[in-house]
Design goal:
The chain is built from two helices and two strands; from the N terminus they run ββαα. The protein has 107 residues and is mainly alpha-helical. It folds into two domains: 44 residues; 51 residues. The chain has a two-stranded antiparallel sheet with strand order 1-2. The N and C termini lie far apart (103 Å).
Length: 107
Amino acid sequence: MKTRSWDLIVLPPHGPRFEQVRVSCKAGLILLAAFLLAFIMTVLLLLAFPRIRVNESDRARLDAENQALKIENANLAITIRRLNAQVSRVEERSQRITALMQNPESD
C-alpha cells in the first residue's frame, strides 16, 4: 500500500501540547525540490562569487580609518551634548525674559 501523506509532529520545548501537521506526498516532494534547488543555487553562487581577500596593508588602512571615525563620532557626541546644554540654558533664559515681560510689576 502506497503512502499518501506524512504526519509531522511538532513538540514545543516548553509546552505540553504538540502540533500534528499532515503533509501530502505531492506537497512533500515540492518542499524537498524547493530545498534542493535553494541548496544548489547557494552552492553555485558561492562558487561563482568567491570571497574577496583583503591584503594586510588595506586591512591596516581600514582599521585606522575605522578608529578615526570612532573618535570623530565620540567627539561629535560630546559636542552635541554641550550644544544641548547651551540650548537648554538659552530656553530657560528666554522663558524668564518672557515671564518678566508679561509681569513687569513683579520687580
